[in-house]
Amino acid sequence: MASRAKATIFDIAREAGVSKSTVSLVLQGSGLIRPETAVKVRKAIEDVGYVYNRGAANLRKAHSNVIGMVINDLTNPFFAELAVGMERVFQSAGIVPFIANTAENPVRQEEVLKSLMEQGVAGLIVSPARGTTPGAFRRLELAGVPVVFAMRRLPESRIPVIAPDNHRGAYLAAAHLIAKGHRRLAFFGGTSDLVVYQERLGGFREACETLGISARDVLVVEGETNRRGGLACLDTALTMAEPPTAALCFNDAVAFGVMLALRKRRLEPGPDFAVVGFDDVVEAEHYMPALTSVAVDTAGLGERAAHVMLKLIQSRTTRAEDHIGAVNLVVRESCGPDLRTRNRPTGTGGAA
């Protein structure tokens, strides 16, 4: 009988009279082994004094049952909803999800990625922090760790992305505002170093150009992607000689800030200034007034990201197709018509 200090899988196989692969399958809890064989192997394990080192086994398999979910801003309800969708899939698959909030800090993100790599994670789903460079993930790619980007992509990166159709969503929102009679439009929030910002602003500009809005009547105000950013954007816009009458916001968080800023000025979102968000978080429907927003299947995108990750792990690859999710505009009370155009032929309808 082998000594306890030196017992190996080979010792178990010899003791039980089975192959090394059979022992490995029993240790992994596989259901492919006949019950009587599994009993015989477990008895041999006890007899030789073998201790199963799960950490070492994970390293041999090149992955564990832990997946990292690295989110850029968990204070934004959208990303919390996204994480719930991921977690639902991982839990049903017996995977342990580890979630980290980088708070839009690429330095913090690098620390989190380094720590998760040292823990031998099976894979990573990341919504990159603002200021992230493609090189930040090069070490992960070289190590063969599967990575999936959620919501945000990086320029020139080959890492698969799960995201909504940002361009189309912004086009639909701008077209709706124009159909309401608005002729001076604004785009609030976000910064030009984000690809998602470029996609949403691009759709907004295309709708304005296609539907006859002059470039001089389009205002773009960059800002933080939260309520504070919305407050600042609205204040900037209303100081202009000819302020806009409506705005598409980078996301719902910015839109909520814009609505707060309007109320501070004793203006009512909807009748006095039309506001449209992007993401359609749960809070949007229950806000006062209810927020018109570009609806994204947030939980569905989270679930898709998780399924792609599981497939990458199972197929031992790091390559997958991008997935661009469908969007639609959910019209509520926050975007009424421009009352100054109500007598013009181009004006349409009442408040949505």
TrEMBL record:
Pfam families: LacI (PF00356), Peripla_BP_3 (PF13377). One of its GO terms (molecular function) is transcription cis-regulatory region binding. Coiled coil: none annotated. CDD domains: HTH_LacI, PBP1_MalI-like. It comes from the Bacteria. This is LacI family DNA-binding transcriptional regulator. InterPro entries: HTH_LacI, LacI/GalR-like_sensor, Lambda_DNA-bd_dom_sf, Peripla_BP_I. Keywords: DNA-binding, Repressor, Transcription, Transcription regulation.
